[in-house]
Amino acid sequence: MKTKLLLFVSFYSFCAIGTRAEQTDVETQPTVEQASPLDFTTEQMVKAVSKDAPDWALDVASRIKLHGYAHGGYYFKHSSHADANINSFETKRTLLWAEAQITPRWSFLFMHDFNSIVQEFYTDFRVTNNKALTLRLGQFKTGVTMENPWSPTSMETIDVYSEGVTYLAGCGSDPLYGVQYGRDLGFSVHGELAKGMFAYDFELLNGQGIQNVKRDLNNKKDVVARLEYRPFKGFNIVATGQLGWGNSLVDSPILCPTVKAGDNYRRNRYSLGFDYKSKPFNVHGEFLGGKDDATVSRGAYVTGSVRLFKDFDFVASYDFFNFNVDDHRDMHKIVAGFQYWFFKKCRFQVQYIYKSADTDYRTFFEHGANHAVMAQMQIRFN
Fold this sequence. Notes:
CATH class of the largest domain: Mainly Beta
Number of helices: 4
Structural class: mainly beta
Shape: globular
Strand order of the largest sheet: 1-2-3-4-5-6-7-8-9-11-12-13-14-15-16-17
CATH topology of the largest domain: Porin
């Protein structure tokens, strides 16, 4: 009975969203019989029921961590293209992931999005005693562009990534590459040097994204390099690059007319960005571009938030991206809005979005004023 209670309260405490503030004196807390699991921290609850639990149960409870978040809200868009108007409630993401610390150096992660598919599964092995060298094997977010590895829960805009990052990193708007959520299958060598002042990540990837569970669609591999320099606390400079090949899923006469479905084509990317975080404000920006066969794309953005008063921020972003510089497939995007943090890592957001063009990235690209309003609730626990 003690073992079952231990496993139950461990899981319940990870999943509880409204956990009360932590206290260090267990004796001042209610007993297990007097209170619900919400009255305890995870550590206090495990201690409270672990007296007679077997060692294996305690070991499992201490090695596995559960995390999760959900994004849902409302989206209204008035488009210059009549068939592209939107008026809908949406649940965008419902993610749950588990981290297992197998040994002090060896760990495993599994992430699933209940709104789509399995997102990540990889194992890390830390070679050095510090963070200087870690090996990773599996399916994970690639290091292409500064924003792509960041969690949507840390991004200021409801649309999450900039137009350039969404397109170049394979987050959904590149029709040739498909919706790959910025992830791929492969091998990574990464770490931090000089007490965290420098960070690096070198990756060897299939280059086809997360859909290739069984095998790659061609025998060519992609190489990704990411370098970070942190000269002082809160400030980061990031340079990334990718050399590789794609296998086109569809024709794209609007954005990349020279590539047909099933073709292997060159797929290269690069970016240079900065990120600064502080209590009064956060800001980050990036210049980025790529080349798909003969099609060149290029853009830049700057996004940030300013703390107006406790737990309440003003958010703004300017984003420019040209999907095909030869055919003038350029788009300007402006975002302005507010967010309120009503609990740790939980917030409510409302934003206005203007775009100078609209496209489905495959069949049409139309310049003209497009207006949208988005509202979103974020719930996260970990």
